[in-house]
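Sample entry (274 residues):
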Amino acid sequence: MSAGPSPPRPSTFADGLRLAVGTLSVLPVRSPEVVDRRAAGVAMTAAPFVGALLGAVGAAVLGAALWAGISPLPASVLAVGSLALLTRGLHLDGLADLADGLGSGRPADRALEIMKRSDIGPFGVVTLVLTLLLQVAALEEAASAGLGPVSLVTACAAGRLALTWACLPSVPPARPDGLGATVAGTVRRGAALAVTAPVLAGVTALAYGVAGRGPYAVPWGFAAAVLAGLLAARALRRRAVRRLGGVTGDVLGALVEVAATAALLVCAVIAGNR
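Predicted structure, serialized as tokens:
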């Protein structure tokens, strides 16, 4: 008598890491062999480190542009544009879709339908334009003070750390399927705290190496920028959960952009007072 098919193996830690890189960026990585909720939890926990890597690439673009003699404003446009390319514009698309859904004023089921459309409405267009303008302007301010690269790494890490906190068990999915349902509730609070600590320490150490000990050096301010990004994302997440009943892939993408923008704005304040 032949044995039945063996049960599928559970995902490994490597599956989760590959899922994180493959989902959050266009960086070449082998597809995970198994995608389950365990892999999703690993991916969302590792998200801020993928964000820091993306920020480093964007910082390299910014630094190369400045080295080539390009002024901070167009150099900042190139850096922000490179991040959009590195992420396939998915987070920006999610931000626009969420703006259309929330701005419609429709009931939750109808708002979710609006968010699934492929087109972008007026709320989405205005939100995208304002967000990108804020990002470029804030990065230009930071770059003019010599803090552009560290600000970009800080903002990108903060944006993806918002994903980690959005996947706690207390945050439900808005739909029974899709990315939101796959990752919702997969990260324990202890894991979120454990990954937040090295992010805060890392951006502080990086800022300390750039800003030094001068009278206007405030490397701890970059940790505050991360926390500001998390607070902004938390406010939007609470609004989305109340209106939609939970999170979706679009909501998660919007949280990335909102957290990154808020963190960049704090970095710009630091740069303006340096």
